[in-house]
Amino acid sequence: MSVYPCSHVPNVIVPPSSEGCEECLALGDEWVHLRLCVHCGHVGCCDSSKNRHATRHFHATGHAVVASLEPDEDWMWCYAHGSQVG
Fold first, then answer.
1. Burial letters for 2-21: b for 16+ Cβ neighbours within 10 Å, e otherwise?
2. CA 32 from centre of chain
3. What is the tens place of the pLDDT at every residue in 35-84?
4. Which helix (H) or strand (E) element contains residue 25?
5. Residues 6+ positions from 60 with CB-CB distance below 8 Å
6. Single pTM value for the model
7. 53, 1, 3, 64: which is closest to 25 by C-alpha?
8. d(C-alpha 26, C-alpha 30), whole Å
9. 35 backbone φψ class: left, alpha, beta (φ>0; ψ -120 to 50)
10. Within 10 Å of residue 37's Cβ, how many Cβ atoms?
11. What is the DSSP letter of 16?
12. Secondary structure of the chain: what % helix, strand, coil (to 5)?
């Protein structure tokens, strides 16, 4: 997969606001992987999770870039461009 520069990546990455998917924790639900909204710090579950809260957060807010919160993963994804970014 190619990595592209992206104008949506903010200059300052906001730290996580939670240790798990905020919506799943409130629902008492589970997730597969976690994604960090680098714009506001929202933590949501990935698209492999049944609730897809990270993608829902993008659609609700327009915050385009998420970073993986998985151990040993160091990548970001831009929903607006549909590509991995750096």
1. eeeebebbeeeeeebebebb
2. 13
3. 999 999 999 999 999 999 999 999 999 999 999 999 999 999 999 999 99
4. helix 22-27
5. none
6. 0.92
7. 53
8. 10
9. beta
10. 22
11. P
12. 15, 20, 60
